[in-house]
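PROTEIN DATA CARD
Card holder: Anti-sigma factor antagonist
Chain length: 111
Origin: Anaeromassilibacillus senegalensis
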Amino acid sequence: MGVRLILKDGCLTALLSGEIDHHVARELREEIDGTAMRTRPSVLKLDFSGVQFMDSSGIGLIMGRYKLMQTWGGSVTIANLPPKLEKIVSLSGLRDLCSVVKEVKEVEGEE
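Structure generated from the sequence above:
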């Protein structure tokens, strides 16, 4: 499991990959929070396109980042949820707190 963080135009994107369980969620939380607290983005985008599995720790990860972003008036966007994870997020009620989007990735070489 890993995370790649990209800051661009006030948006911090966390590209998540692998599986999110309670061991991994703690590491992700520390890395994302550290960068977010230093940069104070207006939007934190959690991109789940590379995540194959998530238990309730993933819901906690999203909820905690939502609370953090609220402290300085920011928001959280959840992007590219695989179908199984989309169901978990919907059942948790996070759609009421965060924007949930499906983004089309641009393919290099296409015009």
